[in-house]
Every structure is written in C-alpha cells, then in structure tokens.
C-alpha cells in the first residue's frame, strides 16, 4: 500500500518523485562549476602566451656597451665593417652573453640579422677575430658567459644593421631584444 504525503501528487501518482536531496542539487552545480573552471583554465592557457607579448614588449638597444639584463645578460661591445667583395661588406658586432636561466641556452638558433630591415645571411665570425671567440657554435650553461661576433653580409651602400636575440622561454615566445646600429665605414 502506498501512502502519499502531498495531496496533489495523490491524483497523479505515476509522476510522483521524492523531493530532490541536497546531494543531487549540489552535484548538479558541482558539474557546472567543474566545466566552467575547465573552460576558464583552457582560455587562460591559450591566451597566456599572447598576453606575454603585451606585458613583455620587445626591447631596442642602439648604443654599444648598453646592457640588456633578463633571462640572460647581453651587451654589444664592438662593431666593425670589412670589405668582402667589390659591392659587398661584412658587418660584425661583438656580443657578450651570460646565461641567467636554469637551463642550457644555445645561441646559434636565436640570432637573426637584418640590414636596412631586410633579413640577410650571416658571415663568418673569424673574419673579425681570427677564430679566437665563437658565439655561433657555443652553448651557454647556467651562469656561464660566451663572447664573439655576430655577423651580417650586406651591400656596400647599406645604412643600418640589426641583430635580434630571442630571450629564452619555455613556450618559445620570449621577449625579443633588437640591437640596431648604424654601419660604420669599412676598415682598411
């Protein structure tokens, strides 16, 4: 025998359902909360690398011996120009780089060269230092330093040279440091 506690449910006993328990109510809200948090976390993880560019804008350095200090310390200490062919010159800028991170840093993959805003090939550092220093083939361990020339090949009438370093970052979107210099006259 069935006993009904509410008179309106007595008329329609097939549709009768016990009142929802507190557990059922909470579990429904908990599911929506978890789904919402997953959506928010996904948006944050997607947007974070893009926000990095807003909060860590690129740096431009235009003077020798001016130091950038971040995940690594980098200073341009010298600039030279030599004649390479009748209509070509090679520009070399000597850099000193110290690794301030907790991981190994390879310099060869993070230097781009531009002459008058056009990407150019690099030359040989040995043209400038007779092979004494090796910036391109060196990696830098934590707390260590490397020195050497970064080079660019250009037309003899070129005006500006730019070397772009990307600050090491776990998500490959680190700050870019631009070293922009007027090209000095050819050394004889």
Strands, helices and their partners?
Layout: H1 7-11, H2 22-55, E1 59-61, E2 67-69, E3 72-85, E4 88-99, E5 105-106, E6 111-115, E7 118-119, H3 126-129, E8 139-140, E9 145-155, E10 160-166, E11 176-182
Question: What do these coordinates show?
Answer:
The chain is an alpha+beta fold and about 190 residues long. The chain is built from three helices and eleven strands; from the N terminus they run H-H-E-E-E-E-E-E-E-H-E-E-E-E. The chain has a five-stranded mixed sheet, with no helix packed on it. The chain starts with 6 loop residues before the first helix and ends in a 6-residue tail after the last strand. The model has no long low-confidence stretch (mean pLDDT about 80).
Largest sheet: 5 strands, mixed
Distance between the termini: 113 Å
Alpha carbon gyration radius: 31 Å
Shape: elongated
Structural class: alpha+beta
Count of discrete alpha- or pi-helical segments spanning 4 or more residues: 3
Query: What is the arithmetic mean of pLDDT?
Result: 78
What percentage of the residues does DSSP assign to strands (E)?
35-45%
Helix content: 10-25%
In terms of quaternary structure, the protein is single chain
Biggest β-sheet: strands ordered side by side in the sheet: 1-11-10-6-7
Segments where pLDDT lies below 50 for 5+ residues?
Answer: none
Number of strands: 11
Task: Give a quick summary of the entry.
This protein is an alpha+beta fold and 188 residues long. The chain has helices at 7-11, 22-55, 126-129; strands at residues 59-61, 67-69, 72-85, 88-99, 105-106, 111-115, 118-119, 139-140, 145-155, 160-166, 176-182.
């Amino acid at each position: 025998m069935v006993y009904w506690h509410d008179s309106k449910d007595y008329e329609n006993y097939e549709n009768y359902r016990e009142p929802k328990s507190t557990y059922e109510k909470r579990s429904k809200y908990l599911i929506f909360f978890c789904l919402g948090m997953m959506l928010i976390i996904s948006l944050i993880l997607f947007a974070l690398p893009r926000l990095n560019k807003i909060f860590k804008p690129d740096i431009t350095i235009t003077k020798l011996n001016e130091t950038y200090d971040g995940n690594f310390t980098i200073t341009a200490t010298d600039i030279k120009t030599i004649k390479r062919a009748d209509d070509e010159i090679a520009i070399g800028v000597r850099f000193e780089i110290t690794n301030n991170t907790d991981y190994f840093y390879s310099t060869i993959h993070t230097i781009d060269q531009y002459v008058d805003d056009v990407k150019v090939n690099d030359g040989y550092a040995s043209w400038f230092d007779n092979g004494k220093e090796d910036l391109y083939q060196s990696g830098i361990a934590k707390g260590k330093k490397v020195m050497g020339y970064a080079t660019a090949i250009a037309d003899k009438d070129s005006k500006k040279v730019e070397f772009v370093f990307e600050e090491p970052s776990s998500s490959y979107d680190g700050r870019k440091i631009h070293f922009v210099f007027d090209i000095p006259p050819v050394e004889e």
